[in-house]
Specification:
- The complex is a heterodimer of chains A (about 400) and B (about 240).
- Chain A has helices spanning about 1-10, 15-55, 75-85, 120-125, 155-160, 205-210, 230-245, 255-260, 260-300, 300-310, 315-350, 375-390, 395-400, 405-410; strands at about 55-60, 90-105, 110-115, 130-135, 150-155, 165-175, 180-190, 200-205, 220-225, 250-255, 350-360, 365-370.
- Chain A is α+β, with helices and mostly antiparallel strands.
- Chain B has a single domain, classed as P-loop containing nucleotide triphosphate hydrolases (Rossmann fold, 3-Layer(aba) Sandwich).
- In chain B, the strands form 2 sheets. A 7-stranded mixed beta sheet of chain B has the order 1-11-10-4-9-8-7, with helices on both faces. In chain B, strands 3-2-5-6 form a 4-stranded antiparallel beta sheet, covered by helices on one side.
- Chain B starts with a strand and ends with a strand.
- Classes of the chains: A alpha+beta (about 400), B alpha/beta (about 240).
- The interface of A and B includes residues 5, 309, 314, 401 and 405 of A.
Chain lengths: ~400, ~240
């Protein structure tokens, strides 16, 4: 009966209820779309960012990221990596070796970050292979002339005035203290002048070992997990696993949020801005809802007097008003879902093309994408219903506290 | 039989339903204080068909409201079945009204979004009466007030007389100790009003239901077994009829 009474009361002033539903539905739509675009775009950014180089999780010898050094290497990786990949459902893993070097072109030189990669595993882990602008993705063997191939970042190639097929000279210090120097042939130029690898030089891992006289060990392992959002938990579990499995090596397993803390913090700050705008939307919607609920209770004061006079407890009247407000909220959300579904589907598949893209952590984004998930569809509903419940507390409290004699004398 | 003002004849304790002791209801304070009721001492016995009469502003409705727990006295106390209602909490008063009082208002005051049947059934829901019993009692009550074919009609689809019959049914269906009716015939034509009063008098006689009216209506006064005359907030005459 309470539900029947609430429903009929809502349907009583159809025009006003319809306007409130439109306001709630509109609020839901705006919340849903802003959340969808925000989450979709951030997830896209996270995906592009982590797939660009970082991966979802990175493993190093403890302290390497704070102060990189040639000797801080992970050893016997082939012993513990394969079972770990299986156990934690790691999608891909890319081993890397790093060394600073001086790179020479024909008549130019520049400091370079030389990275030894396993071309096959790197291509499965990051998007580096897709960033090849000229030439071919790094072959894992010496060419016919007996040179190992090298892949240059776009800015490095420009600085050294090198093209595909040209010779590159690298000079560095070997792990054994010797002078490391060798000639490589440029096989590809990757990225753009703004991208993160612009001043990098990539060598096959075998070539890198020869170059810096480092027959074994790696500096970094970049891992891809099923869901970037699970990276923290997975890193924690892997850390515990490795501490048990490889106790002789102090390894640090970090999710991308810690490896790229600056990028992550910037993104979180940006998200806060989105939530603040969502709060403003909900505040405006809530004022409309409060107005409706308050009007509807004020004009029924006499009825509440009757209900109280015949024995309705204050608590039941409180629940009646909240139920009426919640009915409006649920119907408003249904309307909002109906409106949001097609628009959100469009954003998920086509997104919004930005006239001017923006750069985030060296990666360029030119499209805002939507996301369809329980989070983007469910949270707006919870927010609409929660705020409705909240703003209906005052009118409900007022009705519950009303004295029947005063209410019965109301016009 | 007529008694002195503000003095009711002692009754056997078991028969007394309402005991109103030294009740006053004052509005305002100091020089502008208005005494709507002053020093009211009354008892209402079970099965009475009582009319409280008096000119407008004499305090009839205020007295009814105090008896029904809709308002609290400024001084004195009201007892129902020897239980004081003057100091009950809001929730206790709700339960008191639900279980002991049946109200009939001048303006009918039915819930407009509920049908006749639902209006009658509502109070039984509050009492926790099982569904089957509720349906049975609603049907019986509709038969009693002569509205068998009007169960599904909403108040707006009923005439004034029919609405007041639903209000009577609503007041009686919870099996209250007393029915308080505030000018129940004021908005009805004389034929409808008489029919309604005959019905209530019949229920009083057949089921020993206690009715207290506040009224100007001579038709009610004719049928009443007791007339309590109020003037300026005080009982000036308490007249019992054989």
């Amino acid at each position: 009966m309470l539900f029947k009474l609430a429903f009929r009361n809502v349907m009583r002033q159809r025009r006003r209820s319809l306007l409130t539903l439109l306001s709630m539905g509109g609020g839901y739509l705006l919340l849903c779309l802003s959340l969808s675009l925000s989450e979709g775009s951030y997830n896209n950014i996270i995906d592009l960012f982590t797939r660009d180089h970082t991966g979802h999780i990175q493993i190093h010898v403890a302290g390497y990221l704070d102060r990189p050094a040639l000797h801080k290497r992970m050893q016997q990786v082939d012993d513990w990596l394969p079972p770990m990949l299986l156990r934690y459902h790691i999608k891909a893993a890319a081993p890397r070796l790093y060394s600073p070097a001086l790179a020479y072109g024909e008549d130019k030189s520049a400091p370079a970050s030389v990275i030894g990669i396993d071309p096959g595993r790197e291509a499965r882990t990051t998007l580096l292979a897709k960033k090849v602008q000229q030439g071919v993705w790094l072959p894992n063997q010496v060419n016919e002339a007996g040179y190992w191939p090298a892949m240059l970042g776009f800015a490095m190639a420009q600085t050294l005035k090198l093209s595909v097929g040209d010779e590159l000279v690298l000079i560095s210090q070997g792990a054994d203290g010797s002078i490391a120097n060798d000639i490589f042939q440029v096989s590809a130029i990757v990225g753009t002048e703004d991208s993160s690898e612009r001043m990098n030089v990539y060598l096959p891992l075998t070539a890198m070992r020869d170059f810096i006289s480092l027959p074994q060990g790696i500096h970094e392992l970049a891992l891809l997990v099923e869901r970037p959002a699970d990276a923290r938990d997975a890193a924690q579990r892997i850390q515990e696993h490795l501490a048990h499995r490889v106790p002789q090596q102090p390894l640090a397993v970090k999710p991308w949020q810690e490896v790229e803390q600056g990028f992550y913090n910037g993104m979180q700050a940006d998200k806060q801005g989105t939530y603040i705008s969502m709060g403003i939307i909900m505040f405006i919607v809530s004022i409309g809802v409060l107005n409706t609920v308050l009007m509807s209770t004020l004009e029924r004061t006499r009825e509440f007097g009757v209900l109280k006079a015949i024995g309705t407890r204050p608590g039941l009247l409180f629940r009646l008003i909240q139920l009426e407000a919640m009915l409006l909220a649920v119907l408003g959300c249904v309307l909002g879902v109906v409106l949001a579904l097609p628009v959100n589907a469009y954003f998920v598949h086509h997104g919004i093309q930005l006239s001017q893209g923006f750069d985030m952590g060296g990666i360029r984004f030119d499209r805002l994408l939507g996301e369809f998930s329980w989070f983007t569809m469910g949270v707006p509903a919870l927010v609409v219903m929660g705020s409705t419940l909240l703003v209906s507390v005052f009118p409900a409290w007022r009705v519950a506290r009303i004295t029947p004699i005063n209410a019965l004398q109301a016009v | 039989m007529t008694t002195a003002p503000s003095q009711t004849e002692p009754q056997a304790q078991g028969d007394i339903l309402f005991d109103i002791r030294g009740v006053g209801r004052y509005f305002g304070s100091g020089d502008i204080q208005v005494k709507a009721l002053d020093d009211i001492n009354l008892t209402i016995a079970r099965g009475e068909f009582t009319a409280i009469v008096g000119p407008s502003g004499s305090g009839k409705s205020t007295l009814l409201q105090l008896m029904g727990g809709l308002d609290a006295p400024s001084v004195g106390d009201v007892h129902l079945n020897n239980k004081s209602i003057a100091h009950m909490s809001g929730r206790e008063l709700s339960d008191f009204r639900r279980d002991h009082i049946g109200f009939i208002f001048q303006a009918y005051n039915l819930i407009p979004v509920l049908s006749a049947q639902e209006n009658i059934e509502y109070i039984m829901l509050l009492q926790g009466v099982p569904a089957a019993q509720r349906r049975q009692r609603v049907q019986a009550m509709l038969n009693t007030v002569g509205l068998e074919g009007y169960a599904d009609r909403r108040p707006a689809q009923l005439s004034g007389g029919q609405q007041q019959r639903v209000a009577v049914a609503r007041a009686m269906v919870s099996r209250p100790s007393i029915i308080l009716a505030d000018e129940p015939t004021a908005n009805l034509d004389s034929v409808t009003g008489s029919a309604l009063l005959d019905m209530m008098k019949g229920l009083n006689e057949s089921r020993s239901m206690t009715f207290v009216f506040s009224t100007h209506d001579p038709k009610i006064m004719e049928r009443a077994s007791r007339l309590i005359h109020l003037q300026d907030g005080r009982v000036v005459e308490d007249e019992r009829r054989g």
